[in-house]
Amino acid sequence: MAIVNRLVDYTEQGTALQGRVYFDDSVSGPRPVVLVAHQWGGRDAFVDGHAETLAKLGYVGFAIDMYGVGVRGSTVEECSALLTPFMQDRGLLARRVTAGLAAARALPEADTTRIAAIGFCFGGITVLDLARTGADIRGVVSFHGILKGHDLPKQPIKAKVLVLHGDKDPLAPIEDYLALREELTAAGVDWQAHVYGNTLHAFSDPGANLPELGILHNVVAECRSNQAMHNFLAEVLI
After folding, report:
1. Pick from 10, 25, 49, 134: most CB atoms within 10 A?
2. CATH number of the domain to which 71 belongs
3. Interval 140-168: pLDDT, tens
4. Which residues constitute the domain of residue 84?
């Protein structure tokens, strides 16, 4: 096994974006693709690492870019400023993640009939909104994602959905979770949710340590959620 990676440049309405793809170059032929959507700070080593791990499991892991080449936040204030325009304009969010999907479909290693997406925090709502566009993908997984719905025109959701949620996540209160449950059920979606008790936001991120903001790593929830994701991907990408 030899995992290699390369940068992938693409654009969305004039904004230059840059993802990173990981795959095993000892394997020939197209393989299923998993998009990895980043947290509010931008594409970084955390999501790149998840894309690499997915490549070791036989997928093409593609860490997408929602903000732009080199655009990153390092403080709560900077990350919030990057996130806010997408929460205020969910159409922008949908266009930007759809551009990432198009870049993934263009990868020479990609089996374009077998694509899924996972996302963390802001990436969680990113992949949920990708599903809401009616994208022809197999499934999406939201890790401690923001769960707020939107009022854009509804499209039939083709993807299966897995929501991995901390019960005490202040960024995804119970009313948002219940509204998402009703939305997905009414749409006839094949969905499931794993709710981890006494668990805050960003539970899967070892670097998360802002308990005063409700942001804290939880190693048990991290392990459980990763296993749930692996099981889900094995199901939808067969």
Report:
1. 10
2. 3.40.50.1820
3. 999 999 999 999 998 999 999 999 999 99
4. 3-236
